[in-house]
Amino acid sequence: MLLLALAVLAPACTAGASGVRGKPGAAGVRDPYFPRLGNGGYDVTHYDLTLDVGKDAKTLSGTARITARATQDLSSFNLDLAGLKVESASVEGRPAAVSRAADELTLRPDIEVQDRLRRGRTFRTVVHYSGTPKTITDPDDSEEGWLPTADGAVALGEPTGSMAWFPGNNHPSDKATYDLSVTVPEGLTAVSNGVLTGRPATAEGRTTYRWHTAEPMASYLATLAVGRFETKTSTMAGGITVFTAVDPESAGASAATLARVPEVVKWEAAHFGPYPFSATGAIVERKGDAGYALETQNRPFFPGPPSVGLLVHEMAHQWFGDSVTPASWRDMWLNEGLATYAEWLWEEEKEDTPAQESFDEAYADDDNWAFPPADPPSASNISDPPVYGRGAMVIHKVREAVDDDERFFALLAGWTKARRHGNATTADFTAYVEKATGLDLTELWKDWLYGGSRPAADG
Ligand code: TRP
Ligand code: ZN
Question: At 392, is the pLDDT very low, low, confident or very high (cuts 50, 70, 90)?
């Protein structure tokens, strides 16, 4: 019976009467650690999210308007969404059927719309959804997604959490621009990436904030913080908007570090190339809210008053991670190794601790030798010490090989220029370094990046 049914249906799937020849988009992009993240068959260019945040930031009702370009002829396609209820969806203005399995939504437009979803075509999808957004526990037991705070909530998305608050193509390989219109109870502030467009508008006890992200952003870097915040806006050299939002309880202890945001951005630009975005700043919660900092685009998130070193780290991610984004979660060391090396450089130039000393300390730490940075053994290890410490050691070894700081910093700036607002793999990085320097670094990569055992420190 089943076989017969398939035989009858098969021709209709490949070429229907209306000429539909599309196939379903894949349910994942085969990330080595999170195979179900992201979806095949299309590329999102823009997310336009309208969110209504309920009392105490426990509930959400939203509309996601997604503009995407088909990368194959599509009969249906998936979006990633964890929890929340889908009320309805449409594609190209016409109702689409929605089915759901775990964190995968499948949208199947009617036959006429399917006929239009040809490779290369841009199409619009609208999803209405609502519910109680959830906190996601990662394979390494860290929490992300929608995190309640003392006076609201914050959305953090590394590596999977954006699907807890909006449907999309949730993988770093698909970057897009964003508009976010968020309505919150009066008295609370909604802070996100990018720049505020217009003044917040209050009506009937609710205030609407509109945020615009003009530069491409990976979904894991999108954030929304709802709560009581002290906000400050200024403009730094180059016309970059500096927007900080600080929980009042953290304001005093944050002030000195946050005053240095322009200095840190300028110092990093001198080493890594021009700052890649039109806005910067920070979001600071109070201690006890979320356990870690995150390099949310334009505006890193801190779970409490940050040290200058942590600010240097998260701000360095704006180049390494946010502008140049890993192609998959295997390439995480490109983020963390370079952001950690930024800290070593800062300490070298500002605090008289040579990077060599930081290297020696990292080298001596057994935790950094659990696995090679370019190959974490599982999804639960992508934020482990080798990705940070040993990743930074790789960069230090490259600096040694180049043996000229001016050329080394030009190498880093050349990398951020070549891959600006794009994606990169580890192989892209090693190929770039070898081409730019003219050096054969096969042994360096073998020993420091891929090797299982600890090489001699001066090897
Ligand atoms: N990537 C963040 C940083 O380096 C830290 C981070 C985010 C993290 N999520 C995590 C660390 C989960 C450990 C576990 O700034
Ligand atoms: Zn980091």
Answer: very high
